[in-house]
Amino acid sequence: MTKAIKAAEASKAEQLPFEEALKRLETIVEAMESEDLPLETLLARYEEGTQLAKVCQTKLTDAELKISKLEKSGAGELTLKPLPPDLAESEQ
Predict the structure, then answer these.
(1) Residue 2 to residue 84: CA distance in whole angstroms
(2) Which end of the chain is more exposed for a tag (fewer CB within 10 A), N or C?
(3) pLDDT surpasses 90 at 64
(4) Closest CA to 13 of 29, 24, 2
(5) Which residues are paired to 70 by β-bridges?
(6) Is the dihedral of CA 43, 48, 50, 53 positive or negative?
(7) Distance of CA 58 to the CA centre of its chain
(8) Is the dihedral of CA 66, 67, 68, 72 positive or negative?
(9) pLDDT at 56 over 80
(10) What average pLDDT does the segment 25-45 reach?
C-alpha cells in the first residue's frame, strides 16, 4: 500500500463520527479474532484498526477537554470556559 493511499485512508477515518469509527474498529477486531485470514489481509486490517483507534482516542480526548472546560456561571448556567492562551497555543 502506498503512502498516498494510507494518507487518504487516514483522512477518511478522521472524518468518521466517533460511533462509526468505534463500530468499524470492533468489526475489524471480531474478524481478526474469528476468521482465518491471510497474513496480508491481517496486516491491512491491523493498520486500519490502529488508525481507527487513534481517531477514537483523539475524539475522546477532545470531548474530555470540552467537558473539563465547562464552568457554572453565577446563575447556575453552564458555559464553556475559554482555554488559557498558553494551552490554546500548545494544542495547535
Answers:
(1) 40
(2) C
(3) no
(4) 24
(5) 80
(6) negative
(7) 4
(8) positive
(9) yes
(10) 92
What the block records as the C-alpha cell of 80 is 464553556
* Length of the chain measured in residues: 92
The angle formed by the CA atoms of residues 45, 51 and 54, to the nearest 5 degrees, is 140
**pTM recorded for the entire structure:** 0.66
Q: What's the rounded Cα separation, in Å, for the pair 5 and 92?
A: 25
Give the per-residue pLDDT at 92. 46
Half-sphere exposure of 2 (CA within 13 A, CB side): 3
Distance CA 39, CA 26 (A): 19
Cα distance between residue 39 and residue 61, in whole Å: 33
